[in-house]
Structures are given as structure tokens and as C-alpha cells.
């Protein structure tokens, strides 16, 4: 198995990305090969500085970088020797099994949608977040930012996607899929959630657990998967970030609350495309980079892309 | 000035409501008359039990109650001798200056929309919430639940309404009005927020401060008023409730975090109707009831309804 990392992407690249790759190399078994894409000289220097043998990695040298602020599709078409474009080329041709980056999200989306492409039958690929639950586990929330305007059939598909993810990644036999809404009763909601509720309540594709309200986000009493549009999902995540920041400012400590520190999170797969692509926060630290690589391995092993293809094609 | 309270509404009525009215009576000057609407015998008994003279109140006896779970408009048309219907009658005829209840929200909305009616020019009345800010102040968030589907022109009006509220209730000379969105840049958002941004950026009716993201909800660095649709506003408030509950469970204390205990909040006015109506949580305690009555007084004194009429008519 080969996992490729864009070493040039992210606010602290290439220092943090190489450091994360070293941590992953130390943790992962030898049969998992790590392919680092970026400036070879810099990669070798950083590894040597850290007393780590750079030949533990396969290094693909590139000369260009798509910067964080660049226009995604323009940069993607112009910078053919950038780490992101190269990564998608390797993934597309089957030379690597997954591609991960904390670089320009728009460029990563462009590559995912135009090079790797959606799985036939999936209307809109999505990204999810595992939000901490009081019981110790997590609840999968999707979409969290790709699709700010969703149709009911798109949210319905997110129910299927979330259910498969929860089953094969979190090992929950029959995931309960909830619809984020503003009331527990069936008739509550906006036009989107009312129509989606109608679709979901007859579902044979997943177990529908009904409406979930905002005050039930952080316990998994009612659902293992919570579906919403990307606008609402983004607001939920950023509000959680605001709370974490308040806790820090007020000097509240604790293992549980540390789970809201999204800096440690290891990126998220783009769900519903033909091959595994992981994206992460530009501010990711080395541990987050390491986690993203490890998560890619878990994702490949779970054969989730193949499960999606079986169900949707 | 006369403020009427529905004594029969709420999960702990009439005990909590009468207790709240007694607290308000003790706090408010004598020229503010409190009118209690409900079962006279019970009101007198509760007051006497608490060693308080019931003749400090004007009591309007009613024989019916619209229960919390009842169908709002059906109950409203059938229970003519209920405390809620009576309250709206007194308000409509000018016998009281404000009507407040923590009872059936749907029935309170029905009375507001069909008896008191929208101020001409206002497309959709709204309710707001004052969310705690790290600096010690509050940020006004609206809509928080009445209108889960909003058009851009409705959100634009919420900018005007929120700005006037912030100016005349919070005494902020030039309130900064932000649009809740999923990115700082102008072109970010869903169809609704992109169109609304276009409308707001040309506004002469309020100071537009641009997009506000979820991670800026609890500081007022960028805005004094944050506008969103009622679906998103409801999710934001309930997520904040979830955080407060987690803090309690994890035994985190502190004055700042106690400001997230919405049980203490004193209801909220329905903004954009012809007379002052306050609604509150069914679970309100006596302090919340007292605060709701005091807030009604502040609202009447600020002549906010008249300001809305001047601007919109």
C-alpha cells in the first residue's frame, strides 16, 4: 500500500508535513510505503536535521507550489509541476493508493472532482467530521462544508454515505442516522429538512433515527450519524471551535474538552469520489499530519470507496 | 404602565409564574402595574403562602388554560376564556401595554400574528437572543426560530430590526450588523447568504460589518448584531445549550459560563408586531419570569415598537 503526502501544502510546510510523515513512518508497518511529494532538497534537509533517514520515504520531486491563497482551478491548470497536481496524477494512474494534503482546499477539491471524479450515482461528494461525544465515542456529522446548498435527495445520500462510513470505519453494525433539525417532531423544520424527513422515514438504505436537535450534538444517545447541509455543518463546527477557544482563555482543562481541539484532527476523506483523497486544516500540526496518514491507511483497508461503488453504481 | 403576565403558561405554572411576578413587584417602581391573568383562587393562595399581599396585583380571572402540547391555532380559537386569549384581548384594546407568557409558544405566535399583527412594511416578525460575549457584553442574534426559511429581503430587514434593537435597548450608537456565513470573503456562502450579502453591502439602513463566521459568535470583535435564518439561529442556540450542559456534567463552574444558562434568561420580545409581546422558555424559573417582566418594562420605555413603525411604515 502506498500513501502519498503533499509536503508543500499547509501553513507550516514543509517543516510540519515532513515531521508528521516521520511520525507516521515510525508508527506504520513497513509494508505501508510513504510517498512524499515536494521539494526533494528541503525534504532531505529536514529529515537529516531530525536525525531521520530520508531514504525511508519515496520522494517525488516537484518544483512548484499552489499557495494557500491562490485561485484553486486556475492554479491547478497552470502549475503542472506542483505537489498537488502531481499527487492527483499519481493517484489517478494507480501509482499510489491515497493522496493527502493540508494545502489549498479548493485545489484539492478541483483535483478530486475533475481528475478523480464522483462515483457514478453519487450526486455530490461530501466531507464529514467526527464530533466528540460525552460517552467517549464520536458522532459523524456530514456535510461540513462542501455543499452549502443541498437538495433533499443529496441529504438522503449523505444518510447512506454516513451509515457506510460509520459501519466500516467505526465498526457500528447498524448505525442510527439522524437528521439535524429544529424540533423533534416530524413536521418541524425548514423546507429542506421537512422534505428530507419525508424521504428518510421510508428508507431501506439505512436506519433512520428521526430528527436530532442542536442540544443533542455531543451525546450519541439518539444517533451515530447526523446529516445536515454544509452551511449548517460548517457553523456547528466553527461554534464548537469558538467554545474550545473560550475554554482555553478561561483556563478550563481536561481530557474531554481537549477532544474539541480540532488542530489535532487528522484530516477528513472526501467521500463519494473514485479514490481515497484526504484533506486537512492548513494549521495542522505534525500530529494531525501523522493522524491523517494513519487515517488514510484505515480508510484504504476498510475498502470504503469500493463499498460506495457497490451501493451507488 | 401596565404589564400583563400569563400566570397559567409554562411547565411549572402557576407556582413559578406567581413567584416571578412577586420578585418583579418587589423590584419595579410602584407606577408599573402588574396584571396577572389566570386562576384567581390559585394566584391568591400562592401569594398568601409566600406571605405576599395578592392585592399588589391586578388579577384577571380566567377559567381555561391552553396547555403546552395543544395545537396552537385550534386552542386559540376554541379557548376564549384562556389566559393567553384574554391577554391578547387586553393588549389589543390597550388595557395593558405589554403581554408576557412562557406558555404555548405557537399560541403566543398565533395571537401575535392574528390579533396584534405585523407592523406594515415588515415582511416577517422575528425573535432574537442576546448571546454572551467574552468581553462581558452581548451580541444580538436573530432570527432564532420563528422563520426557518428566509428570503434575502427578510434577512435584510432583520439587519434593520437588530440595529434598532441594539441601539435603543443596548445603547450602542452605531451597531455593527454582521451576516452569519461560512467564510469571511464576500463570495462565500450559500445562495441565501450570497444574495443577502449583495443587498446588505449597499445598505444605508444600518452599518454592515460583513460576514461573521461561527468561531466569532462569542466575541463581539466584529459585530454587535448577527443576522441568520431561524433554522441556523436555532441550531446555534441549542448547540450553546449543549455546551453549557457538558460544562455542568464535567463540573466546570464560573460566572462567565453561567451566562450560557438560558434558564435564567428573561424571555424575548416578538419584534416587528404592533404591540409588545414577550415569550419565554416553558422551563423558565421564577428569576427568568421576573427578568421577562423587567425586560418588558425596558422595551416599553425604549419605545422600540414606535421606532419600528417610524422606519418601516
Model regions low in confidence, pLDDT < 50 over at least 5 residues of chain A: none
Spatial separation of the terminal alpha carbons of chain A: 25 Å
Largest sheet report of chain A: 6 strands, mixed
User: Could you name the CATH topology of the largest domain in chain A?
Assistant: Isopropylmalate Dehydrogenase
CATH class type of the largest domain in chain A: Alpha Beta
Mean pLDDT of chain A: 95
Biggest sheet strand line-up of chain A: 3-2-1-4-11-10
CATH superfamily heading of the largest domain in chain A: Isopropylmalate Dehydrogenase
Per DSSP, the total helix count of chain A is 11
Short description:
The structure is a homodimer of 313-residue chains. Chain A is an alpha/beta fold and 313 residues long.
Explain this structure:
Two copies of one chain form a homodimer. The first copy, chain A, is of the alpha/beta class and 313 residues long. The first copy, chain A, folds into two domains: 2-120 and 272-304, Isopropylmalate Dehydrogenase (3-Layer(aba) Sandwich), CATH 3.40.718; 128-258, Isopropylmalate Dehydrogenase (3-Layer(aba) Sandwich), CATH 3.40.718. The first copy, chain A, is 41% helix and 15% strand. Chain A contains eleven helices and eleven strands. A six-stranded mixed beta sheet of chain A has the order 3-2-1-4-11-10, sandwiched between helices. A five-stranded mixed beta sheet of chain A has the order 5-6-9-7-8, with helices on both faces. In chain A, helix 4 packs parallel to helix 5. The radius of gyration of chain A is 20 Å and the shape is globular. The first copy, chain A, starts with a strand and ends with a helix. Chains A and B meet through helix 8 of A and helix 8 of B.
Amino acid at each position: 500500500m502506498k500513501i502519498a503526502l503533499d509536503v508543500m501544502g499547509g501553513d507550516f510546510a514543509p517543516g510540519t508535513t515532513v515531521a508528521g510523515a516521520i511520525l507516521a513512518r515510525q508508527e506504520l508497518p513497513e509494508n505501508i510505503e510513504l510517498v512524499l511529494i515536494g521539494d526533494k532538497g528541503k525534504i532531505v534537509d529536514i529529515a537529516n536535521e531530525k536525525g531521520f533517514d530520508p531514504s525511508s520515504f519515496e520522494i517525488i520531486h516537484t518544483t512548484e507550489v499552489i499557495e494557500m491563497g491562490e485561485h484553486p482551478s486556475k492554479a491547478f491548470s497552470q502549475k503542472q509541476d506542483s505537489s498537488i497536481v502531481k499527487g492527483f496524477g499519481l493517484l489517478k494512474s494507480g501509482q499510489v493508493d491515497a493522496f493527502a494534503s493540508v494545502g489549498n482546499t479548493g485545489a484539492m477539491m478541483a483535483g478530486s472532482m475533475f481528475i478523480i471524479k464522483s462515483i457514478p450515482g453519487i450526486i455530490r461528494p461530501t466531507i464529514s467530521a467526527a464530533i466528540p461525544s460525552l460517552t467517549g465515542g464520536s458522532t459523524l456529522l456530514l456535510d461540513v462544508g462542501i455543499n452549502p446548498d443541498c437538495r433533499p435527495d443529496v441529504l438522503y445520500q449523505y444518510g447512506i454515505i454516513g451509515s457506510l462510513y460509520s459501519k466500516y470505519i467505526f465498526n457500528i453494525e447498524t448505525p442510527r442516522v439522524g437528521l439535524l433539525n429544529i424540533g423533534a417532531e416530524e413536521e418541524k423544520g425548514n423546507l429542506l429538512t421537512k422534505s428530507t424527513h419525508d424521504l428518510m422515514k421510508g428508507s431501506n438504505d439505512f436506519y433512520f433515527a428521526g430528527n436530532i436537535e442542536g442540544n443533542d450534538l455531543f451525546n450519541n444517545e439518539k444517533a451515530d450519524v447526523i446529516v445536515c447541509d454544509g452551511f449548517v455543518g460548517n457553523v456547528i463546527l466553527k461554534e464548537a471551535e469558538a467554545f474550545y477557544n473560550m475554554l482555553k482563555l478561561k483556563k478550563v482543562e481536561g481530557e474531554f474538552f481537549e477532544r474539541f481541539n480540532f488542530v489535532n484532527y487528522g484530516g477528513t476523506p472526501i467521500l463519494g469520489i473514485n479514490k481515497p483523497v484526504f484533506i486537512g486544516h492548513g494549521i495542522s500540526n505534525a500530529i494531525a499530519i501523522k493522524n491523517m496518514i494513519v487515517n488514510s491507511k484505515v480508510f484504504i483497508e476498510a475498502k470504503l470507496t469500493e463499498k460506495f461503488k457497490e451501493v451507488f453504481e
